[in-house]
Write a structure and sequence with these properties.
heterodimer, A: about 600 residues, mainly alpha, Cytochrome C Oxidase, Chain A, two-stranded antiparallel ribbon, 16 helices, disordered N terminus, B: about 220 residues, Four Helix Bundle (Hemerythrin (Met), subunit A), about 0% strand, elongated
Chain lengths: ~600, ~220
């Protein structure tokens, strides 16, 4: 270790309550704030999905309390078709932006990236603080649309043009609701760009002595790659949102074509391009899928290696695979637009990289699988959720092979098949990554161990429940069940209603199982067993410091890194591992040059 | 599998105390994995040097999105009406280019000043003030261009061509205002003698980028509007 006094520390320890817990400059507090935001958002999104599922299964059932949310949207607690779409839009937006992006990237990345590289904080703490509060403001703006007289927007999380730009004649919430939605997402983009502004220099410039790029843990690599993706994607979505807002409030015609008649009214715009929005949105939208999942890949690798007690077959190839996923994610976005009247040659051009992107994903899964083979995996809540992540990633990814081909995608595109696909591969897989990270890192974040029995119960109920919910979606899709419908009155859909009821019951039970997690998290935070500094006998730098880490991460002494990140299966003075910051010489069979 | 024995690295005693605020694993410091740290300098580059490129890349992507929107929007409809760009834009261009020159002059004088030759440079901030003035003049000139178009009846919503003109120029002007904020920050730091070289370098890179971006936008507007 060498003396921190030689360094110009950006900020001293917090002296006031406000600076310590509210407008904190400490990346660890900001990480916790992001985590709390994601937790609240996830609960909101889950409750919304419950309401939607109950309505789909029992169409005329009154949902207690729903009329309090909207008297016009849910008179007597029975939601109108429009209100169903509004809840669906909010569910998708909350989950994609404020949970799947916020938790694995912003929350855990903020807390652990500086510690894993050996820095005492992010390079620009004030921007980091602003990043969270701008994101939080975006969440408040989005949720405030529930208070509008006609409710939030009903355009789906993709907000397709031209209905996103013509105002309230397109339906409830399509006026001010869309403006609030676009403003919220623009704020979110600013927040994430500020995040990238900190993540990238932290990784490139603040690595501690001896921490070469290839000595970074896989989780740090994942956050770095994700921040590069976010930098490119959110910088494109933000101008798109600005143009939507201008179409609403300034009378411009970016997205509204001429001669458009909506609800028997001629829209007074001229000549806009509806496809323009799709191009801008999906240029962001597909990388967003990987922004949600790549941190999970890094986190799960990190967790699994620690519990396997041996490194992956090739850390370097895993890093290259994550990089390849990031690059290819920008070349495949058109596969979301196969049904937009695209030239078949263009469709082929987007279909090919979509199939190619399965190669790094498959290599990643193969590395996990063959690394697990023969290992004496320590079974705990974190490793179980990591295995669950792989299961969901594979199960959801396999259907991606089918959807990558335009001829198959076109009939399946507007069905529950796609809903099942992206919920498994992007939604639930990323959630399992978040859970794995929580069970693994909560001791370091909060200084308390989480209850293992409750954790395992949470895993099995979630794992089985998730398959019960989303595998039938594929069957529904192949049976022609159209998505976004709030009721199924057509004859050919009637036999599918029992399947929907099964899914709804599974969703309610699986959702209730998440309350076990919430209880476990809160209870262990205050009354859990105090956590030792390195409960998992792990090697990376976050386990070298105290639990919970001091405000400057390493208590005035920066570590020096001597080893690759995953030196397990060795004989050292502390056991079968040697920490990155330990100067001890060891012989290892698994050192990767 | 390779078998490796890690030698404990030696700490380089030639530590540069005023460089950076963390370790030395920074960009370009490819510390070999065999633990020999002697070959690496014992400091990182300042984070602002890579952060400014992060900022510039984000701005580039933003304007790339606007550009693609303009091209698609113009190509997809028949309602596009061209108009003559206000001639003051060309004068504004000269102002912005001149401000880049004055900023470079300022940087040289500040380098001399901070290099210990204080007696040779009485007022190192003078050229920064000139740059600031030229920047403000540019923004005022852009405002004059918008006023001229409004006087001609070309508002934001009049035609997609005018919409894009206002969106692109206003967004650029807002970024220029951000650069002016950076210049004021540098002037304040300089007046307190606590200016770091990397702060001035980052501000200068941003400011020059604003000039290059404006040249690109002017060309785009001239060709497409």
């Amino acid at each position: 270790m060498h003396d921190l006094a030689a360094h110009a520390v950006h900020h001293g320890p917090p002296t006031s309550f406000i600076r310590k817990y509210v407008f904190s400059l400490d990346h660890k507090v900001i990480g916790k704030q992001y985590y709390a935001l994601a937790l609240v958002a996830a609960l909101c999104g889950m409750v919304l999905s419950w309401m939607m599922r109950i309505h789909l299964a029992w169409n005329s059932a009154a949902i207690p309390g729903l009329q309090l949310l909207s008297k016009t949207g849910a008179p007597g607690g029975v939601m109108t078709p429009e209100y169903y779409l509004q809840l669906m839009t909010m569910h998708g937006t909350i989950m994609v932006f404020f949970v799947l992006t916020t938790a694995p990237f912003a929350a855990f990345g903020n807390f652990f990236l500086p510690i894993q590289v050996g820095a005492e904080d992010m390079p620009f703490p004030r921007f980091n603080m602003m990043s969270f509060w701008v994101t939080f403001a975006g969440f408040l703006v989005l949720m405030s649309s529930f208070t509008l007289s006609d409710g939030p927007t009903l355009g789906g999380w993709t907000q397709y043009a031209p209905l996103n730009a013509v105002g309230s004649i397109a339906g409830p919430g399509q006026g001010l609701g869309v403006v609030l939605w676009a403003a919220s997402i623009a704020l979110f983009c600013v927040g994430q760009l500020l995040g990238s502004l900190n993540f990238i220099p932290t990784t490139l410039d603040l690595r501690v002595k001896g921490m070469s790029l290839m000595r970074l843990p896989l989780s740090a690599w994942a956050w770095f790659i994700t921040s590069c993706m976010g930098l490119t994607a959110f910088a494109v979505l933000m101008p798109a949102c600005i143009l939507v807002i201008l179409d609403h409030v300034a009378g411009t015609s970016f997205f509204v074509p001429s001669g458009l008649v909506v609800s028997d009214q001629l829209v007074p715009h001229s000549g806009g391009s509806t496809l323009l929005w799709q191009h801008l949105f999906w240029f962001f939208g597909h990388p967003e899928v990987y922004i949600a999942i790549v941190p999970g890949i890094g986190i799960v690798s990190h967790v699994l290696i620690t519990n396997m007690r041996k490194p992956m077959l090739s850390q370097r190839v895993l890093i290259y695979c994550m990089g390849a996923l990031a690059v290819l994610s920008y070349m495949v976005y058109g596969h979301h637009m196969f049904v937009s009247g695209m030239n078949p040659i263009s469709a082929l051009a987007f279909s090919f990289p979509t199939l190619v992107i399965t190669i790094p994903a498959t290599i990643t899964v193969l590395i996990w699988t063959f690394s697990l083979y023969g290992s004496k995996l320590r079974i705990n809540s974190a490793s179980l959720f990591a295995l669950g992540f792989i299961s969901m990633f594979v199960s959801g990814g396999v259907s991606g092979f089918f959807l990558a081909q335009p001829s198959v995608d076109i009939p399946l595109h507007a069905t529950y098949f796609v809903v099942g696909h992206f919920h498994m591969v992007m939604g639930v897989a990323a959630m399992f990554g978040i859970f794995a990270a929580t069970y693994f890192w909560a001791p370091k974040m909060f200084g308390r161990m989480m209850n293992e029995t409750l954790g395992r119960a949470h895993f099995w109920l979630s794992f089985v429940g998730t398959y019960c919910i989303f595998m039938p979606f594929h069957y529904l899709g192949m049976a022609g069940n159209v998505r976004r419908y709030s009721s199924f009155v057509d004859d050919f859909l009637q036999p599918l209603i029992p399947v929907h009821r099964f899914i709804t019951v599974a969703a309610l039970l699986t959702g209730a199982a998440q309350l076990i997690f919430v209880y476990n998290l809160i209870h262990s935070r205050f009354w859990g067993e105090p956590a030792p500094d390195n409960p998992w006998e792990a090697t990376s730098l976050e386990w070298s410091t105290a639990t919970p880490p001091p405000w400057d991460n390493f208590g005035g002494k920066l570590p020096v890194v001597y080893h690759d990140p995953y030196q397990y299966g060795v004989q050292s003075s502390v056991g079968d591992y040697v920490m990155q910051a330990s100067p001890e010489q060891v012989k290892t069979e698994h050192d990767e040059k | 599998m390779a078998t490796t024995v890690h030698e404990p690295p030696q700490i380089d005693p030639r530590r540069l105390r005023d460089q950076g605020h963390s370790g030395n694993g920074g960009w370009g410091k490819f510390v070999p994995t065999d633990g020999d740290l002697h070959v690496a300098l014992d400091h990182s580059p300042p984070p602002s040097s890579s952060a400014i490129y992060v900022v510039l890349f984000a701005i580039t992507m933003m304007f790339a999105a606007f550009t693609s929107a303009l091209i698609v929007r113009k190509g997809s409809s028949l309602d596009w009406r061209t108009f003559t760009l206000p001639s003051i834009l060309y004068f504004n261009t000269l102002l912005l280019l001149a401000s880049s020159v004055t900023l470079e002059v300022a940087r040289r004088r500040i380098a001399t000043f901070m290099g210990g030759l204080k007696s040779q440079v009485e007022s190192p901030a003078r050229w920064l003030y000139v740059t600031l003035f030229l920047g403000l003049l540019f923004v005022a000139g852009q405002y004059a261009a918008w006023s001229q178009l409004r006087a001609e009846g070309l508002y934001l919503a009049t035609n997609p061509s005018s919409s894009f003109f206002y969106v692109l120029t206003v967004t650029h002007a807002l970024h220029v205002l951000g650069g002016l904020g950076g210049l004021i920050y540098v002037i304040r730091k300089l007046s307190k003698s606590v200016l770091h070289r990397n702060q001035l370098v980052a501000t200068a890179r941003y400011w020059h980028f604003m000039g290059i971006l404006w040249l690109y936008l002017l060309l785009l507007l001239w060709m497409k509007i």
